[in-house]
Amino acid sequence: xxxxxxxxxxxxxxxxxxxxxxxxxxxxxxxxxxxxxxxxxxxxxxxxxxxxxxxxxxxxxxxxxxxxxxxxxxxxxxxxxxxxxxxxxxxxxxxxxxxxxxxxxxxxxxxxxxxxxxxxxxxxxxxxxxxxxxxxxxxxxxxxxxxxxxxxxxxxxxxxxxxxxxxxxxxxxxxxxxxxxxxxxxxxxxxxxxxxxxxxxxxxxxxxxxxxxxxxxxxxxxxxxxxxxxxxxxxxxxxxxxxxxxxxxxxxxxxxxxxxxx
Length: 262
Hints:
The chain is mainly alpha-helical. It has helices spanning about 1-15, 20-30, 30-45, 55-70, 75-85, 90, 100-110, 115-130, 135-150, 150-165, 165-170, 170-185, 195-205, 215-220, 225-255, and strands spanning about 50, 55. A hairpin with a 2-residue loop joins strand 1 (about 50) and strand 2. The protein is globular. InterPro entries: ABC-2_transporter-like.
């Protein structure tokens, strides 16, 4: 099955970069939103600090947010959704390949295609703005380790979202809602530390916070080693939990598949 996974991931990767002009544009200019965010926060912070973030720390936070956001939104969501909306899922059910596993391979292949944009934007931001470095070499290593869980987390959340297509037979509104929740509750839009206490608690009770706040907190040393390992363990638990929940929901939804009204 590993060869099938690799083949599906490769196809998704090639599909993502098939339109080379669009792909090149995203690679070259994908960091503009980051640069705009840096300009805004520079104006807001100046020589002061907010929520424990001074300008140097905020620059590092925003760079990490850009990196994680680029990866989180890079998967082939519409490819998955269209298989349900167009009825191709009926054909998938006849194949000796697990639907969830196949979609995971395709999704991660699409995410890999976004790596050049993420690396280029991050490199430019580091060279131009020189954000704070990691709190320690161990913090840097744990940050990289925590970033790896973005792949299964992003897939798990997106896969649960596309399963809604069985019921709604539409995906655009679901995608907007999902993207808004990820952007807000992850801390990409505004650091969780700047939110009211009750909203911080709500954010930490959901998986979205691990996209940005968790790696940024580890990188900047806002948690100690034990705290960092605890956050990574929570990431892993959410990743597994989302995949298990999606499989259970799939078993119920697939009992009634509507294809072209029949």
